[in-house]
Amino acid sequence: MAGFDENIVREYFELNGFFVRQLRKYQVQSRKKRTDEDTELLVYNPAASMDSGQTGFQLFSADMLKMRRAFVVVKAWHTSRFTPAMLKSSSRIFEFLKKDVLNQVEQYFSCDETSDDESLFSDEAPFKKILVVPAIPASDPQRSEAIHLLQQGGIDGVLTFGTILENLLRKVEVNHSYRKSDLLQLMRVLKIYDMVKEPQMNLFG
User: Fold this and answer.
1) Domain count within the chain
2) Is 30 a member of any domain?
3) Does residue 102 lie within any of the structural domains?
4) Domain membership of residue 137 as a residue range
5) For the CA atoms of the chain, what is the radius of gyration?
6) Is residue 91 part of a domain?
7) From first to last of its 205 residues, what are the pLDDT tens digits of the chain?
8) 160: part of which helix (H) or strand (E)?
9) Residue 21 phi/psi, 5° resolution?
């Protein structure tokens, strides 16, 4: 399902004015092929200034609009292990971050900044390292510890799928046809038929 996750994240950045380039689509696997392969993107926002100001570690759409360049790793979330109950449990989310994410940070962000992508996005703005995950713990002490460990691993910020989907739903207009995007067109249809309620964005009432 990594392709589906990638599409959600790509639509989010493009709808918010970013140029998006995929760094690696396939990874060489020494053993059997992974079904939850992660996606690595390079995103560039020409509208953002060089000095974007401070942001929190958990990023929201207003924070992303201040960011000029970033490496974005999408941690696939449509696995049998990620259930609605897990999303509501700070301790279980923390275990997921600790076991499945922290041990792979160096592998995620091993891209060489002097690659041919630099000619496309060449300026002096630093690259931020952003991780897209289903959620981070909502309460302490798991939240503080997870943020501390991720920062120690070199990650500059975390963006959740909840933030991404809410932003997409807010930006999709019912009077606009999104023929080139199945995802945005589906969101538009849901809004047309009042399946999504604003401002809370409750799905199916």
Assistant:
1) 1
2) no
3) yes
4) 2-24+35-171
5) 17
6) yes
7) 458 888 999 999 999 999 999 876 544 444 444 445 678 899 999 998 876 667 889 999 999 998 998 999 998 665 556 677 777 888 888 888 887 777 777 777 765 554 555 545 556 677 899 999 988 998 889 999 999 989 988 899 999 999 999 999 999 999 999 988 999 999 999 999 988 876 555 555 4
8) strand 157-160
9) -135, 130
Cis bond before residue 126 (omega within 30° of 0): no
| 3-state secondary structure labels for all residues of 70-123 | EEEEECCCCCCCCCHHHHCCHHHHHHHHHHHHHHHHHHHCCCCCCCCHHHHCCC
Is 66 part of any domain?
yes
Instruction: Convert the chain into a string of H (helix), E (strand) and C (coil).
Output: CHHHHHHHHHHHHHHCCCEEEEEECCCCCCCCCCCCCCEEEEEECCCCCCCCCCCCCEECHHHHCCCCEEEEEECCCCCCCCCHHHHCCHHHHHHHHHHHHHHHHHHHCCCCCCCCHHHHCCCCCCEEEEEEECCCCCCCCHHHHHHHHHHHCCCCEEEEHHHHHHHHHHHCCCCCCCCCCHHHHHHHHHHHCCCEECCCCEECC
- Predicted TM-score (pTM) above 0.90: no
